[in-house]
Fold this sequence. Notes:
With 376 residues, this protein is α+β, with helices and mostly antiparallel strands. It folds into three domains: 3-142, Beta-Lactamase (2-Layer Sandwich); 151-218; 226-374, Histidine kinase-like ATPase, C-terminal domain (Heat Shock Protein 90, 2-Layer Sandwich). It is 39% helix and 25% strand. It contains nine helices and 14 strands. It has helices at 24-34, 71-76, 87-100, 145-184, 190-218, 232-241, 243-248, 266-283, 342-352; strands at 3-5, 15-17, 39-44, 49-54, 104-112, 115-127, 133-141, 226-229, 251-254, 262-265, 290-299, 302-309, 356-361, 367-374. Strands 4-3-7-6-5 form a five-stranded antiparallel β-sheet, with helices on both faces. A hairpin with a 2-residue loop joins strand 5 (104-112) and strand 6 (115-127).
Amino acid sequence: MATTATDNPRNPLRTVRAIQPPDFTTTSMLNGLAKLHALVMAIDSQRRVIWLSDELGFLNGPATDLIGKPLITLLRAIRTEDLEVSRPKAAQFIEEMNENGQVSRARFDLSHENDSLRLEVSAFGMRDSANDQLYICFADRDEPREALERKNSELEACVRGVSHDLRSPLVSLLGFSQLLRDDYQEVLDRTGLHFINRIDQAARHIDQLLHDMLEFRRIGATSQCRVRINPKPILEQLHSELKLQLDEKNIDLILPDETPTVLFDRTRLYQLFSNLIGNAIHHMDRKSAARIEVEITSEAAGWQISVRDNGPGIGPEDHQRIFGAFETASRPGNKHKSSGLGLAIVKKIVETDSGRVWVESELGTGARFVVWLPSE
Length: 376
């Protein structure tokens, strides 16, 4: 990505990236959010606005004039004759996002044409298909619970619609890239084959994101069938399904010899193990002696499941954030691509069943994800 020098007096050697618009998947998501929220914007890692929608006319002039401008420029563009922003809250909100990229929420008390107005602003971090860090912010009038529930229903409908609309062109993209590889590999040089592989990888990344978005929406929307079940056959099935990935990274997956019977929905238990083990495989970066170990023990009034790995580990500042939707650990040089929904799915599955999930880890020491499930 192109960079340009900056005249920042605090760091005269610092360089900044050229403005890059959101990729296709991110733009589709932003368009969906814009149908549900009054103000939606995407901010890049250097706090520049790269996408903006303003349905309530908060800003002076067209929103397109602010694309590529620093976030502070957008704040100054709020119509001061109608809106008076609570500056301390705004500063704290931005500072929290700047420091750790955590999911942020804040309510701002504004005045609009002499009327009281409460505005609720939320933000979350995510990475696009190029692994660039983005922040998505959206704002709405602070409305009663009934209105929020209605918006949640509309958002679910939006997710279904976007997923359906993207599925057909995605299948075509995967199919034609496969045809190019099969029928023209004798003609294409190494660079051409590399480009086809990149197309295929990007399409499969979108496919995984769509799948995870739909799964995340379904959890809790349908009733669970809790039965007494032995987790061992599920773990053995997953071991067989993940064998190719395990072999490619030379990872030893260690499963318990005996497992206690648990009370849980079989499909959700499969998803829970699949996402926890898959997450460990995805982020494993060891060249040798890579290991993932699963343990299940009976505890007071429930069961405890742990998935431990000896991978790169997770810093304490990310222990809560990684369970949010579209979140990944913020390790320097992290180039792993994922939907950012795997651990959010685990958390939603567990909490829907009144359980808890947490991580124990530090950078360089591996990670241990722990799930506690109640027996009643």
